[in-house]
Structure prediction request, 54 residues.
Amino acid sequence: MLIECVRNDGFEDQLTANSAYQVKGLGENSYLIENDREDQRWYGRQHFAIKIDD
Prediction:
């Protein structure tokens, strides 16, 4: 699943707004992704929207 960052508040050094990320794992309220630093981290779902291909 691809998700798009819609809010990078507090994570400006790790996530880029309007960029897509591949989900590596699903938590109850979070996604595990590889961030811009190439680290795998958990982020709250409020930072993302599910990306739907056009």
